[in-house]
Design goal:
The chain has about 300 residues and is mainly alpha-helical. The protein has helices spanning about 10-15, 25-40, 50-60, 65-85, 110-120, 135-150, 155, 160-165, 185-200, 210-225, 235-245, 250-255, 265-270, 270-275; strands at about 170, 180-185.
């Protein structure tokens, strides 16, 4: 009897079962497979994975999304494909799989002034958050904690209230498993305490819905604030850049990167903002103006 090849969507569960991967990471694999299935008009099976099929999908998909998104989804599908090949379900991917060309772009981040405009925009949010806080209060606190700590979204929504209210605390980052020491400003601590009196809760900024729902709501908040379009990551970048503006070389430690890492410099620091505060050579004295007449 010939075994039926599982769909790639179903294989995501198998992949996650035998590996210590975060739920947020598994969700990204699911989204990558969903994009492939939408393109194919059906659930693609593991046995169908070939360089030609995946390359044709990437050609069309890259025309619809940013190069960074296409490259990310390509990487996620290839991870699943290689795992399935290790399980003997399909031939391993080859170098013929179409690459996604990414054009290097300068890192952008929000300034302190733009983040403060986000806080102002929070005031007009309607309804109540599912944790019991008014949505303006929840978003105001979440933005403040993100700016103060530079934590990734997944680490922030898991931050315990008892840890946060100490003012300084250590978080073991879910992505890197590295500890990072964080601190909250006196203003943020005061806001946190006010919210805990209003709505006692074990997590400082709990988010019971999906990350997609969070990002969708945040996009609307950014539009309402009328600042440069950006994502939640722009808060982490802005936080790191603001630290670097104050003490050169401290951004990497603030973000919890490994000693000697260049990740902050290449992926998080907005160098245009840093350059604006950098000392420049003193101007030369006015020189001789060349004559333009023929005499």
């Amino acid at each position: 009897m010939v075994a039926v090849s599982p769909s790639l969507a179903d294989y995501v569960g198998t992949y996650a079962l035998y590996r210590d991967v975060r739920a947020a990471t598994v969700r990204q694999y699911e989204l990558a497979v969903a994009a492939l299935d939408r393109w194919a008009g059906r659930r693609v099976t593991v046995a169908e994975l070939t360089p030609e099929l995946v390359s044709r999908w990437l050609r069309d998909y890259a025309a619809e999304v940013s190069p960074a998104t296409a490259a990310s989804k390509r990487s996620q599908v290839l991870v699943l494909w290689r795992s399935a090949a290790d399980d003997g379900l399909v031939a391993a991917p080859t170098r013929r799989v179409r690459p996604v060309k990414q054009i290097p772009r300068a890192t952008e981040a929000w300034t302190l002034e733009e983040v403060e405009r986000l806080l102002v925009a929070c005031r007009d949010l309607p309804r109540t958050h599912r944790c019991g806080l008014p949505r303006p209060t929840w978003w105001d606190l979440a933005i403040r904690i993100a700016w103060d700590t530079g934590l990734r979204w997944s680490d922030q929504i898991a931050l315990r209230s008892d840890d946060a209210r100490r003012g300084r605390f250590t978080v073991v980052q879910s992505k890197t498993r590295r500890p990072v020491s964080c601190g909250l400003s006196d203003t943020t601590l005061a806001v946190l305490e006010d919210t805990l009196r209003l709505c006692p809760r074990p997590l400082a900024t709990p988010w019971p819905a999906t990350q997609e729902a969070f990002l969708q709501q945040f996009r609307r908040l950014v539009a309402a604030a009328r600042i440069r379009p950006g994502t939640w990551k722009w808060l982490r970048r802005g936080s790191a850049t603001d630290v670097e503006l104050q003490v050169r070389g401290d951004a990497s430690t603030h973000l919890g990167h490994a000693p000697g890492s260049r990740v902050a410099d290449t992926n998080y620091l907005a160098h245009e903002l840093l350059a604006a505060s950098r000392a420049r050579p003193r101007p030369l004295s006015r020189g001789v103006v060349a004559r333009t007449d023929s005499g």
